[in-house]
Design a protein that fits this description.
Blueprint lengths: L1 H6 L18 H10 L14 E2 L11 H7 L10 H14 L3 E5 L2 H12 L5 E4 L4 H9 L3 E4 L20 H11 L6 E5 L12 H14 L2 E5 L3 H11 L8 H10 L3 E5 L10 E5 L2 H14 L10 H14 L2 H20 L12 E5 H4 L9 H13 L1 E2 L1 E3 L1 H4 L15 E5 L7 H16 L7 E5 L10 E4 L8
Parallel strand pairs: 1-10, 3-4, 5-6, 6-7
Antiparallel strand pairs: 2-8, 7-8, 9-12, 11-12, 13-14
Helix pairs in contact: 2-15, 3-12, 4-12, 5-6, 5-11, 9-10, 13-17, 15-17
Bound molecules: ligand F0G.
Length: 468
């Protein structure tokens, strides 16, 4: 039985090149973490054993992608790789127009400037850090319209990325459709734990928006993972291919922003894709100002070639089953040990529920940041905080957001780590779990103005500090 379970998601590749890992001592890790201000973003990667900070740009490319890198046409204008990528994006995602960007936030920047007017509201199925920031910089206020279950780490709802149509309707009634340029729909929802949105819900969102003349923008960063969940979980979809579900998803939206560093198995790249001719003209003009000429958008020709090849590899059923299978292998083992994680398990990461892992810490002591620091000390594993530090401050009041979810994200790069690595990870988390009461929490001692989680610095609270 065991063997069959593994066979179900075993890697559909073998390893041709290896990159040595460095194992460090506890003393070395203590010094490195103090030097990094207890922020895992500030660690040197050479001091990290298993790097689960992010699945962004950390993927292993295939031999075909590396071969494609040699076909880079590094012309300033009209690179052959651009045209191949354009054709592939049209085929896979279905939008008519492509604007390449250096990564996802480049596309978010262009789209926010294009469609937002100061004072607008942009509803979305939970915020993402860079997406919301670009909306705010363009003068909009983000409004969370995800279903309540998404904010509950224990809810077993199969599509926790769904939009709450009543919340959306109420917002439109309150501010008027003219103040809502588009609804920002992510598939999957990173900050909710990599949770999918169903096609049924996306279709209903689309219909509601159409009645009010509001556009729908897809954050397609992990839309292929989302398609895998739809195939597995949504009634009537089992026989449909991931590729078909992806196209159907995109067809329900007007545009997408894309960080190709995730689904598309590359180390850098992104794009904006859209259907409207006039908006495309404007975006193509704007990209020249902020990214680079419209046929490279801040990328090398070889990067666009690797991305085009990645689009085919990412849509392969056996790839996606292995990718998500590995994440679920770790999640199931942690659940068996009684360790609190977000359920159901999402696509790109296992999220430790730091609020339940460290219930003795108040949110002001940054439980998720503290747990990520502790896991690094234990075993050199690097994870990421997704709680109060990531949530930042309300720009109008200056107060810290207090998100309901206080999570540590163990993010899995695609095709990088083995099952033995997964087992080391499970063992390390169990060891921290066994001595969780010793974790004292952190105080923030430096806070940068934008996206503070990347560069903030902390200090451990002394062991005897009162819990407040
Ligand atoms: N949208 C989603 C859903 C993302 O997860 C990210 C990046 C972006 C947009 C921005 O894309 O980094 O290419 O500019 N997420 C990374 C992460 C940083 O670790 O989750 P980018």
């Amino acid at each position: 039985m065991r063997t069959r379970e593994k066979r179900a998601w075993a890697e559909p590749f073998k390893i041709k090149m290896v990159e040595p890992l460095r194992v460090t001592t506890r003393e070395a890790r203590e010094a490195a973490l103090a030097e990094a201000g207890y922020n895992t973003f500030l660690l040197h990667s050479e001091d990290v054993y298993l790097d689960l900070l992010t699945d962004s740009g950390t993927n292993a490319m295939s031999d075909r992608q590396w071969a494609g890198m040699m076909l880079g046409d590094e012309a300033y204008a009209g690179s052959a790789n651009y045209y191949r990528l354009e054709a592939k994006v049209r085929e896979a995602y279905g939008y008519r127009h492509l604007v390449p960007t250096h990564q996802g936030r480049g596309a978010e920047h262009l789209l926010s400037r294009l469609w937002i007017r100061p004072g607008d509201r942009v509803p979305g199925n939970m915020y993402f850090t860079t997406t919301r920031l670009h909306q705010e910089l363009a003068g909009a206020t983000f409004v969370d319209v995800i279903i309540d279950e998404a904010h509950d780490a224990t809810s077993l709802h199969p599509f926790k990325g769904n939009v709450d149509l009543a919340k959306l309707e109420a917002l439109i009634a309150e501010v008027g459709a003219a103040r809502v340029p588009y609804v920002s729909v992510a598939a999957t929802v990173n900050m909710a734990g990599g949770q999918p949105i169903s096609l049924e819900n996306l279709r209903a969102t689309r219909e509601l928006c159409q009645r009010h003349g509001i556009k729908v923008v897809l954050d397609a960063t992990r839309a292929i993972e989302n398609a895998w969940f739809i195939q597995r979980r949504e009634p009537g979809r089992a026989g449909q291919s991931i590729a078909d579900i992806l196209r159907e998803t995109c067809a329900l939206t007007d545009a997408c922003t894309m960080s190709a560093k995730k689904d598309l198995l590359v180390n850098i790249g992104g794009f904006l894709a859209l259907n409207d001719d006039a908006s495309f003209e404007e975006a193509r003009n704007m990209v020249v100002v902020y990214e680079g000429l419209h046929t490279y958008g801040g990328l090398a020709g070889r990067d666009m070639e690797a991305m085009a090849i990645g689009i085919d590899e990412a849509r392969a059923e056996e790839h996606m089953t292995a990718r998500i299978g590995q994440v679920h292998y770790v999640a199931d083992a942690l659940l068996a040990e009684g360790i609190p994680i977000v359920q159901p398990t999402g696509g790109h990461a296992v999220f430790l529920d730091a609020a339940r892992f460290l219930p003795h810490l108040p949110q002001k002591a940054y439980p998720a940041q503290s747990l990520a620091a502790e896991l690094y000390l234990e075993s050199g594993i690097r994870a990421m905080e997704r709680g109060m530090v990531s949530a930042g401050r309300d720009p109008s009041t200056g107060h810290e957001h207090q998100p309901k979810l206080e999570l540590v994200r163990l993010t899995f790069p695609r095709r990088v780590y083995t099952q033995a690595h997964c087992d080391v990870l499970i063992e390390s988390i169990c060891r921290v779990w066994d001595r969780r009461e010793e974790v004292t929490g952190l105080d923030m001692v430096y806070e940068p103005r934008y996206l503070r989680f990347f560069q903030a610095r902390f200090q451990p609270r002394p062991p005897a500090a009162p819990a407040a």
